[in-house]
Design brief:
The protein is of the alpha+beta class. The protein has two domains: 38 residues; 258 residues, TolB, C-terminal domain (Neuraminidase, 6 Propeller), CATH 2.120.10.30. The chain is built from two helices and 22 strands. Strands 2-21-20-19 form a four-stranded antiparallel β-sheet, with no helix packed on it. Strands 3-4-5-6 form a four-stranded antiparallel β-sheet, with no helix packed on it. Strands 7-8-9-10 form a four-stranded antiparallel β-sheet, with no helix packed on it. The N and C termini lie far apart (67 Å).
């Protein structure tokens, strides 16, 4: 092959690669856009100033660092030290420990779907276990990257996909967040994110919609996320006491603040199957779980978010 032929072959291969990536990206967007448009969104709101119930965890139990629903009566929780897993029954405020993890394993996130528990550890390893945690359904998957960290994990019920929040530092205290997806069967994170946004764009949104001075120090530190089952919207909790809500295209919908007198160290955000919001306090002196009821509205009244 001559040098000219090699050059044109390289150019064609590059164009083909770019075209394939573009088709993949458009395919991902089209898939989720179609699902979002066919989803019957329920209209309602959360009033964070009015909690429906507050429960202190049983004596001796550490605060939760992650929480996900198993069924209508029980949830899977991770202890504050990330070394223990347990099933927690909110209605009776009781729990029991699950089989012990391998020594030294620190689980930071957990999700559940169709009898499969997915856990993310501090070393960026994904574990796929059966619901009893007695046996693995797949080999651990390493998702570590040099330039980014997968911080959060949750399950998207409408799409039957796992969602990951990947954080990349952009310098000057600006961060980029990407929401990536994974099919459980494929066990491979999609290279094309569902959407992404930068902290600077979030700050601009807040300044436009709320009374936030440019002189105020803004911090957004994601510690938990979940998809609301009635609206298909993604809720992201910051350790600073705020909740960001986005739609499936990554548009900012709302930015709400938690009453830090009720929860001093916001740590976990989750939803029960009814759509009620659960928030946990990471303080060992105040291991409380707050429940905020989902207040459904009639469509004719329009959308209201407090």
């Amino acid at each position: 092959m001559t040098r000219v032929q090699y050059f044109f072959s390289f150019v064609l291969a590059t164009i083909s690669f770019i075209a394939a990536r573009s088709i993949q990206q458009e395919g991902v967007k089209s898939y989720y856009k179609e699902l979002a448009s066919s989803f019957h969104k329920e209209i309602g709101f959360f009033d964070l100033s009015e909690t429906d119930a507050a429960h202190y965890l049983p004596m001796g139990l550490q605060p939760f660092s992650a929480l996900t629903s198993l069924d209508t009566n029980s949830m899977l929780a991770i202890s504050h030290d990330s070394l223990s897993l347990m099933t927690y029954m909110p209605q009776t405020n009781t729990f029991h420990y699950m089989p012990a993890l391998a020594e030294g394993t620190k689980i930071i996130q957990v999700a559940y779907h169709d009898s499969t528990v997915v856990m993310l550890d501090a070393a960026q390893q994904l574990y796929f276990m059966d619901a009893s945690l007695s046996s693995a359904v797949a080999e651990p998957l390493n998702i570590a990257q040099e330039d980014a960290t997968h911080k959060l994990l949750c399950f998207h019920p409408n799409t039957s996909r796992l969602l990951f929040l990947k954080q990349t530092d952009q310098g000057s205290e600006n961060k980029r967040y990407a929401i990536q997806t994974m099919r459980l069967g494929a066990q491979k994170i999609s290279e094309t994110p569902l959407f992404q946004f930068e902290q600077s764009a979030l700050l601009a949104f807040i300044q436009q919609t709320q009374d936030l001075s440019l002189d105020e120090v803004f911090s957004f530190d994601p510690v938990s996320m979940a998809v609301h089952p009635q609206t298909n919207e993604l809720y992201i909790l910051s350790s600073t006491g705020s909740i960001l809500t986005l739609d499936q295209q990554g548009n900012f919908l709302s930015f709400q603040n938690i009453d830090l007198q009720q929860i001093s160290q916001p740590r976990v955000l989750s939803f029960d199957l009814n759509g009620d919001l659960l928030l946990t306090d990471g303080s060992v002196l105040h291991p409380v779980i707050l429940k905020v009821r989902w207040q459904k509205m009639l469509p004719k009244k329009g959308t209201l978010v407090k």
